[in-house]
Amino acid sequence: MRLWVLSDLHLDRRLSWQPQRPEDFDVLVVAGDVDNDLARAIECVALIADGKSCVYVGGNHEGDAGGERPGAGIRSGPDRRALRRHVA
Prior knowledge:
Elements: E1 3-6, E2 27-31, H1 38-49, E3 53-57, H2 77-86
Parallel strand pairs: 1-2, 2-3
């Protein structure tokens, strides 16, 4: 099994980012700190995975916008809807 592992992308702090996609991989593993907006982080991970299997573990920055508890939005609202769209 070939893994493509990414972490600490902090896309909320970058103007643009283009991943150097490996030629082939079986599973994308994203180990947190993608974006402080959890719904946007999930959307970005889904785009990067591009239909491949993916394991995404949120870090301490996901859901941390506006002083909220990290990950608080996963229980309801747009973050949960975004997660449902990308989980089979």
